[in-house]
Amino acid sequence: MLVFENLPNEVHLLIHRYLSCADILYSFYGLNIRLNRLIKRFRTNVVLCQIEYKQLNSICQSILPLIGTDIFNLVISNDWKGVLSKVFLNYFSNKIELVFPNLRKLILPTFRMTSLMLLVDHLKNFKQLNEIKIMSLYETSQETIQIEDLFEKILSIHVKSLIFDDDTLALSFQNAKSIIYSHIEHLVIELKTIDDLHRLLTSFSQLKSLDVSIVEPQPQTIEETIQFESNLSIKSFRLRSFLYLWNVETLSLILKRMPNLDELFIEICTNNDTRLLDGTQMSSLFSLFTLKTLNYSIQFDYFEETNSTEAFRSTWNDVLWIENETKTTILLTNLPIRSQHLYLPYSIAIDSNYLRNYSNQVRFLTLYENSCRLAEIFPILNQCYQLERLVLRINEEISPSKTSSCLRKTKILIMFLSRNH
After folding, report:
1. What is the model's pTM?
2. Which of 182, 268, 343, 413 has the fewest Cβ atoms surrounding its Cβ within 10 A?
3. Per-residue pLDDT reduced to its tens digit, 370-405
């Protein structure tokens, strides 16, 4: 008679593909030495997400204390409106660094602010922890803490790499205490304003890599109290900002604070400064740095008073220049294309030049000025092989095509895509 435990290793590994990490630990750990070896990667990379309450209690009580020294990467979600993380803390709050002494990477998805603050208070004594990634942090009307206080607590954890994903709350960096965060070397963050970015550049003295998104428009004047010392440590800088209307002076002021850059990725918008379309002027700015990698992408939306921009096209070599049919928006990006984030009007994204040259690179795409006909975006999705996240901003005033499925009453639609490779 065939016994499950006697199945070949290959069959067990195929079965694992259809089970979550929690299912595998709960079902197979401790049955015998062979099965423990087969699930080794699930013991070193533990994911506590979308798990039943009974499973979670059993895993926390009987399994995690036995495999804690094997765990290098740990994912703790805030499922059940905060109950999951609370159960986890009930078991490990006072001994978390003792149970998981070799933890290198911690991923925290879908936390609300209060729940995350409770967990962060117990993350200060890890010896090996190198990276924290916070995903989809949100706030509710019942929050009793300020986002600035939580941010300060997170920054005080001694890790080299700190990542906030694009679905996390945009943060404001004030640093009223003038703290220097010299332990952080790699930072991915979404900030509210350019002033926040300038304050951050002053406070992170050993930062080597910075990926920042600016999400709120603000006046062109910079706050007078901000200091503009150079940050000599940053080698790689990515700027993503699709709502703020940029000009050359504002961009130059930021870049010149990082004189030792060798990788630069810029993805910005403007509607009034044609100098950002001028290859001669921009090349002069970029020549101030010894760049090994440069990706410059700008979206230009015409004002009625804007003169023709066609003359600027000849000032560039090796660029993709796309103008929509109504001559209201230009997308300019240098080649080869390395940008993975885009904020585009539908009229640009549907352009054949875009679909042919760029669409297979993008992972995070926001499309605005869409009609309510969902099927109109299918040609774009069909070409975006790497797309992970799509945000659609629906404009009900735009006339849709006659044939297509319709999205009614939807202003913003967010999709997370999974592709089989």
Report:
1. 0.87
2. 182
3. 666 677 788 888 888 888 888 877 765 555 544 344
